[in-house]
Amino acid sequence: MSAASWTLCIDFGTAFSKAAAAPLDSWARFDPAWVRPLALAGFEGGNAFLLPSAVFVADEAVLFGAAALERAEAYARHGRMALRSFKTLLSVSDLDRALKTRAPTAIDPHRLFTMRDLIVLYLAFLSAAIGRAQAEDPELAGERFANRRYAAPAWRSGDSAGLHTSIVALFSEAEALVEKAGVRLLAPEGLEIAAVEQLLSEARSAARPLQMGLIFEASAAAAYTSIGLERSAAHMVVVDVGAGTTDIAAMFRSGGRIYELPQARATLKQAGEFIDRVIANLATEASGSQRSLQKQTALWNLLMRQMQDIKESLLYDGRALLRYGTRTLVLKWSDLERDRDFAEFRRNLQHAFDHSLAVACRHAHLEKRSEIQVIAVGGGSGAPFVQDMLRHARVDAKRFKVAARPATPDWAHAEEFSGNLAPVFPQLAIAIGGAIAPDMMLAAGGED
Ligand SMILES: Nc1ncnc2c1ncn2[C@@H]1O[C@H](COP(=O)(O)OP(=O)(O)OP(=O)(O)O)[C@@H](O)[C@H]1O
Ligand SMILES: [Mg+2]
Q1: Which structural domains are found in the chain, ordered by start?
Q2: What is the pLDDT, as a whole number, of residue 367?
Q3: Measured in angstroms, how far is the CA atom of residue 14 from the centroid of ligand 1?
């Protein structure tokens, strides 16, 4: 085989980008041995399959991914920040205007770049990382993928398909930029500022129309769920707890096709990063309010650096310790539970889940079916409060049976993944599902 008979799916995430490839006939003949999550970040430091969605404009260069985050940390004292969470920009109602906006000075002190420039640069970095992973895989090296897709949430009540043209234009400029800059994009020291403006303008004129499909994130998760697990029910509710959004969708399978029940769809703007902010606020309050601004900033930076550990300890073990100077702050799950913003998130989540489940049950009833599967994917999916919600799904138990499915299949533990895949599998479910889904599941775009 060569890449010419594979489909690539890019999941450009708020916190992490992911990508996976699968042979063209995967939907009809699924074989997990042929699914390729791509090691975009390489097997050094961090997780190999997660490429941080971050750009840092330094004095001399533009840096990407983990290198951008590291440099941003070193410069935090100078009021400089990395551009992160830029995916959420793609969901605003006037996208073209938002893209033309200049990046704030804390992000781009040179005042050189628009948001569009920075997103194109990041997508070029992402595309170069895909090229590197592809080149290292004997099955994929050399040729272009037969099909390319990207996953996006069903933003603004189903208008994502309308944004498709604008987003594909960004990907196509990024492609042209990769052709000019090549592997320089992947260098930890980044691209020199002096070259970047020139590269961007060349890429703008060299961009060629690009064929890319759009698959809704929930459809991709459902495609994976419906094929990647040994047995699956016709009806399922998928909850994707990502960094920027929590997306809920209900799907049903009939023949080889998955249909979405659009009335069940919900997108909450509360997800991983929202929880981070709640935790950071709790910790800052606990540290006392009369501290100087400088000390508060130092604490906030410390919190953000250790947030992943703090969050996991708090969610999974019920408490987290934070050593701060000579003090130790203790945060407890009960503090989080009592927090008004967090409580509101849980209420919204429960409400959206109940609603999706009710829509799925109504449809299942019409189809004379009684089993509904529920599954959570995304980085926050393992959190006990999410899993509890799935396990205690509220339905008419006499008529419906709800089964909560694990997001990680056995094959994710295979030796070839060096222990890197299983821990992050729920985060990769969308890229993998998007790569195996048949064309008919696309929300827009299609074959090359
Ligand atoms: N074990 C864990 N427990 C709780 N949260 C986690 C865990 N691992 C990762 N996260 C959180 O999950 C989020 C990243 O998940 P994911 O990669 O699914 O998001 P994304 O795809 O980048 O975001 P989005 O789908 O909203 O665009 C981060 O907020 C991270 O802190
Ligand atoms: Mg995601």
Answers
A1: 3-214 (no CATH), 218-271+341-408+423-433 (3.30.420.40), 272-339 (no CATH)
A2: 93
A3: 9
